[in-house]
Amino acid sequence: MEGFTQANLFELSRGAIHVTYSTTSFIGGPILSYRDNQLSRSFRGEEISVQATDLGQLVTVTLETIPDLRTVKFTLILPVVTVMPQSVGTRVKVPGITTTAPTSIAGPLPGPQQLYSSINLRGTAQFIVP
Q1: Residue 13 · residue 25 · CB < 8 Å
Q2: How far is Cα 19 from Cα 31, in angstroms, rounded to an integer?
Q3: What are the Cα distances from residue 36, in Å, to 17, 40, 68?
Q4: How far apart are CA 92 and CA 11, in angstroms?
Q5: Distance, CA of 97 to CA of 60 (rounded, Å)
Q6: Alpha carbon of 79 to those of 1, 7, 92, 93: distances in Å?
Q7: Strand partners for 76
Q8: Which of 16, 4, 17, 7 is nearest to 78 (CA)?
Q9: Worst-scoring range by mean pLDDT, 21-25, 48-52, 62-66, 109-113?
Q10: Within 10 Å of residue 37's Cβ, how many Cβ atoms?
């Protein structure tokens, strides 16, 4: 499809959660900002894990690490979105998953080693020139 390109900027929200993810930036790598009622964090480069899967790209950041208590990660599942360059964007709805892993210096505790919470985020996907 001539004239179309792959989206590189996602602006997503639902309730108190606001996420902006850009696959490229003026600093060269990806950037992601996450905000909710308790946290406001920005990530860039190697702080962002991106994995290609059959589900789509899994974009993961570590929101919180509290030794001997828990590690909290947030993952977006992003599809490939084809858009017109310089357009206002295409509406998207994507899942965001918060994974909480309990930690203990005594080793794994009995029970699930990951607890999940998911939310459907809505927003836009668009292409911007870095």
Answers
A1: no
A2: 11
A3: 4, 7, 24
A4: 9
A5: 9
A6: 18, 10, 9, 10
A7: 59, 96
A8: 7
A9: 109-113
A10: 8
List of E strands, the chain: 5-6, 9-14, 17-22, 31-35, 40-44, 49-53, 56-66, 70-78, 82-83, 90-102, 115-126
- pTM (2 d.p.): 0.90
Q: Phi then psi for 19, rounded to 5 degrees?
A: -130, 130
Residue ranges covered by each domain of the chain: 5-126
Distance of alpha carbon 73 from alpha carbon 68, whole angstroms: 16
| Residue whose pair of structure tokens reads 């828990």 in the numeric block | 70
Tokens of 18: 């606001």
pLDDT digits (tens, 9 = 90+) for 57-85: 999 999 999 998 999 999 999 999 999 87
Task: Using pLDDT thresholds of 50, 70 and 90, give the confidence band for residue 2.
Answer: low
Bridge partner residues of 14 (DSSP)? 17
